[in-house]
Queue: 4 jobs
Job 1
Amino acid sequence: MARLLRRRGLDVSSAHLIEAVRLADTLVALRDRPLPGLEELTEATHAVLLAGDALPLQLIEQQLLVGEELGRVLPETPATPLLADLHQQQCRLRLREEATQREVVLDLRQARDLERSSLLRRLQLLNIPWRQNAESVRGKGTFQESWHLQCQPEFTVKLIEAGVWGNTIDAAATGYVVQTAQQHSSLLELTVLTSQVMFADLPAAITVLMQRLQAEAALPSDLTHLMLALSALARLLRYGDVRQTDAGIVEHIVTSMLTRICVGLPHACHSLNDEAAEAMVQHLRTAHDATTLLAQEALLADWQRTLRQLADLPSLPGVVQGRCCRLLFSNSRRATKPSNHTGLPVSFS
């Protein structure tokens, strides 16, 4: 323990060691035990060498008590089909299993990195804990993504459990997604799941999800849920081709959802209290950003007409009318700039 702490730049003298040994022996005598055990040594280290600081104690537990070395099994050892398929893909894509956390930056324009991303996202759908947490995946532009990978002990156990969905990673992820899609009735949950599946490159599962999305989008639903789902689908349509996925298959659903939003918004904005009006303002901004992101003339025209209709309704809350006017002004493509007495254009911030 002293050597490890010294390598980390912590001051541990011989006097510290002598006092820690004495404290461990004292604890043994008080507890009527023959020799100091791990509990006594840890408590003595925490009290004397670390002065009660718990953070270096975590380092000792991680590197000395648990360790960072992974064992290996012989290649001829029998394995489940799903585990064998994963090992084969790991070797082909050169993805190593390591106990320490490692950052892997993938360039999605490269064929191998695109396959790596698809494999990692399929494992993510199967709840395989190769990544440390959900925040370990972050976008860098549209062509790069960063994964913080760390192999955990339950990795193999979860792979064996996922074998009920299929014998390959592709088949297992598809089977799991299809079962999950049949259980979900929330339009927003189905939309998020669709984005994950398209990025994971699972065409068989996408067909089922499209049918579920069409069925749920056709049913009467809260407009706020439609707005949130529209935002996720708009990002999918706009950036789906970065991963060479066919995002055009959701275009019909997006058009029908936006049409329902435009028809229902004037009625949904009536009789709102202050709290509901503030929430509607945020939903309007979400739907506006999604429509602008789509960059389709027909959809933009429909959305602009709806905003003008809302801005002209006197019975709507002022905060909603004000937000509609602001969105119309910010999206105006041919704003007229007045001139001052010098003849120079006047700019507005």
Job 2
Amino acid sequence: MKYLDEFRDPELAQRLLDEIRAMTTRRWAIMEVCGGQTHSIIRNGIDQLLPDAIELIHGPGCPVCVTPLAIIDKALAIAARPEVIFCSFGDMLRVPGSERDLFQVKSQGGDVRIVYSPLDAVRLAQANPDREVVFFGIGFETTAPANAMAVFQAKQLGLTNFSMLVSHVLVPPAIAAIMESPTNRVRAFLAAGHVCSVMGAWQYEPLVARYRVPIVITGFEPLDVLLGIKMAVCQLEEGRAELENAYARAVQPAGNQAAQRMLLEVFEPTDRAWRGIGEIPQSGWRLREPYHAYDAERKFAVGHIDTHESPLCRSGEVLQGKIKPNECAAFGVTCTPRTPLGATMVSSEGACAAYYQYGRFVTLEGENN
């Protein structure tokens, strides 16, 4: 805790808040891309401590939240098959599909298991040669290298009963889509530090140049977030648009090159649908041709699935930063962690989950939501 406490010092936080307040002369909307940053902001009340002129917009940086409903329904169809052991991280089990979730599939007899690494699923495939083992591979660039390694290792081992349902998404194309939206209000971005620890900073330089938008690579502790906000506001007030790194203790310019090589070995870019947002060109990964035998979507022929979104859920608008969670009529009423209408209410990084967990039920006049 010693090293974490260093980034939670209230006196240093107040100093950063005073500096932000002193330099702010105009209204600015800044988007934190990552759901982990959103939870840090809401948990620590950072949005309520900032000057009224600074609005924080919660971005689509929760991989569970943006996994499209069609992929969830494909996962449910595969998991219900009697020959399948379906493996997933725990945060996917309560994400609602069109009619049910993975917990319900499990309660109805499906062999659904929580694992803590994709390599656990590879080991299950080795131990159960008479069963099909499927791993649900979702996430941003942070989790993708381990998933790529699992597929790579399965091929090296000659396993024919292991496959992966892939739903990986990429941050830079999402930023581009936000900037090109006709309703965009974002003037600067706090980029996700853990993504950049893998991919480095170089992917964001073309975005800064093309859209003339400040991007600050930011960590997750209160002082990390406040420093990122301060650097973004400083750029905006001075009329600059640069890529800056406020998380240098974890992020190097080139990133983790070994992880990047593994990604390029196993995955290739593809267009990807984002739940609540729509399709974003070249915003995801799929398995390269040499690894098609490990593609669960191909193996189980679940290419076409009819989906049915809840008409009450406005999580798509939350993910696009158009509304705050507590501006949705269903929030905290028909949509709760026990009865979620969308993934943003059940994911550990979902904005709706953060607002519910930390009591943001009422929008007060004059308050930054």
Job 3
Amino acid sequence: MVGTLVEQQVAHIWRRMGFGPTAADLDHGVKVGTAALIEDLLTRKMTTPAQWAFPVATDWQGMVAYLGRQFELMRSSPNPLQERLAWILQGIVVVGLSDSVSFTELRGHLGRLRLNPMGSYTQLLRDTAIMPAMMQYLNGDENSADHPNQNYARELMELFSLGLKNPVTGVQNYTQEDVVQIARALTGYTFDWNTSTISFDSSQFDNGNKTFFGVNHGNAGLSQVITAISQHPSYKYFVPARLYREFTGLNAPPATLQQLGKLWGTTGDLRAVVSAIVKSPVFLSTASMNSKVKTPVELLVSGARAYGFDLTSSDYGWQLSTFMNQHPMMPPNVSGWPTGRIWLNAGVTMGWGSIVQDFASASIASGKGRVTELLQSANKATAPTAAMRLCGLGTMSATTSKALSSYVNANTWNRATAAGLLALVLVSPEFAIN
């Protein structure tokens, strides 16, 4: 293998706590050490909506521009972990464009996820529950005393907070009757199509007594529901278990879940749990490193970061939706996007190959991008390793190294060969690993 253990660990930290490193990130991480790098990424100041500078337009062109800006922030934000966590939350507290959810509503939801992804998850649930996007996506605005709708009540427990069973004891977390009773408590909210706002109409609220989780909560409403969920035995496990998989690529053992659960508490302390995970020995273990496959969005952002390609004005939504099946605003369902080897398929390969060609062409045309940097800093003998580092890889197999060397040696060392070499690194098995 090419690359020292520390270089591999630094690259791993950047892939999991951000969207991959540049060559400069690798050098800096090796210099300061892995513990200092992790602490640095954990403690960077949160960016603000003013810094995000999302376009104000809400038509389809505004949506394309918003997506380009979101990708660019994921690529170049001064707080990579904020972007990574916002993306993780986008796959947990899921809302997507639909017949009832427009881009106007969705951008409000995404903005809330981005605002403080290291804060209280419990507060996040309280806020998103009555935002227009969630209300419309899961029919909360259609839930009234006379015409109950159980959709949001079910997904709130199953997908956003508890899961079906307690992961430690195996006990079922809720019953159908709990769904019915909580749906009653969530009635009364209506959507104003003229102002795109949610308001509470007491005449549509079921003000009778509700019993859920085995307790009579009286005339309970949304606030009492979220409080009861936050005190449920499984609340301290469900999202922490997901975060553990996201950052380590592994399933948390019961003892680890119990430790994380104490940190999570009833407030859902995202910062405490994330900090504990990335500071644990398992995070930098060989079992954790290279244990995940990049999703299409991760490929796009990490590739652009490696190339120094500004995504602000890009329009890769059609490749992501048509070939690669991961448009950030169009999750397949309320469960979000799949993970794992499912992304190793022909559609992703085709879409990614066309995007890499864009990166290479832009770098050649600029006359000062990564292609020029590689051409001027390397020769035929050193080019494969130099290209690997420029693309933010901390390691390369002997097989890949040999293939890259064969390509370089078969051609004249010029701009076209340098561009082709960088493109080959981006479509290598090593780059597909997260």
Job 4
Amino acid sequence: MSREASIASATQYFDSGQFKTDLARRVAIPTESQNKDRLDALHQYINEEMIPCFAEMGFKTEILYYDGLDLPFLYAERIEDENLITVLGYGHGDVIRGLDDEWADGLSPWKMTEKNGFWYGRGTVDNKGQHQINLAGLKAVLDTRGKLGFNAKYLIEMGEERGSPGLREICREHKEKLKADLLIASDGPRLNADRPTIFLGSRGGVTFDLIIDAREGGHHSGNWGGALSNPAVQLAHALASLVGPTGQVRLPELVPATLPDAVRNALKDCKIDGGIDGPEIDPNWGEPGLSTEERVFGWCSLEILAMEAGNPRTPVNAIPPRAWARLQLRFVVGVDPLNVVPAVRKHLERQGLSMVKVELSREEIFDATRLDPEDPWVSWALKSLEKSTGKKPALLPNLGGSLPNDCFSDILGLRTIWVPHSYPGCSQHAPNEHMPVAIAREGLGMMAGLYWDLGEADAGKA
């Protein structure tokens, strides 16, 4: 009975081919939560895959619902001793739309295919493969030690790709049931493919629309040019007043007052690398005076996701009656998401652009969260990963993307530690989503080691 034996048990599960078989079976279930016709698949994943998996490890399970929603939440728990620490795990079994027709030849979102050291399939990294790695790590400890040595709770949701509707309400309603000492979960990418990574929260996300409805129908640009306002011109000025030509956010209410020293210090050791297929970084884009890593993980970005005026595919000689743009603010701790839309409205009015309507494009807002990088649990987790891999892990104060981490940090009051099992070039949310085989195998060993260490007397001590 040893830490090394637990890691060996996890890697044997991988080397035997059983991990691949289990993941392929789960990928084949088309759990598209954004597709109302896939509701049966969401329940199938919970009932046929997750419940038996937890039952095999001695967990009690319960399916939870929030009033008015048909999305299931699976709660599982294994309580070994009320005096032991309790760890909450999280994952989501739903996936983004498959986009079946857009995958490369020979690939399908619902049939896992191995090619050039990658496993292709929808959910391989987001998030079926990631929580499968963690559950296998738990089982390896149980098989080796005969017990976990700590209490474990787990929450699997089936609506994360829809903005996690109901998750906050479930956490509030079942706060006592979900009570724990910390969260350990996996989602999102590593800093790069080769370096184990820990992140402590996530940037938040607010998506909103700018809309100008000037009049009914277009009017001939020759007959009316100079007499009628052009919504496309007005929209261009509105956008330029919010984001500078090098990507700097121009509205103070949409950025934090400062970059904390603890965040800056953690990011000194980090370097963004998208791999061979990743895009080339634009070094002068974003907030001046910050490194690329500080801009992504410590600051805010305001992105224009789409915009339209007139008929882009077939332009005609007419002043467009309407213009529209969808923007997304990725924000960090220190920015109030509820103030974003009001602040933008007031700003545009000051600019003489009161004709621009500002509306939220989705009700769900992911809040920004960040555990203190100097928390003792952070040092403990970094040491555990380094002991298992022989590599110095990267520490990111928060993920650049958005996760419902505020449910755990703010509502449940937990320390949150995320150990991702993916990499920036994984094509998450796009065709050809894939997991590097090497990351899957290394991740199994890391999590077996991490869960083993949670059962030791000095767990959580720096």
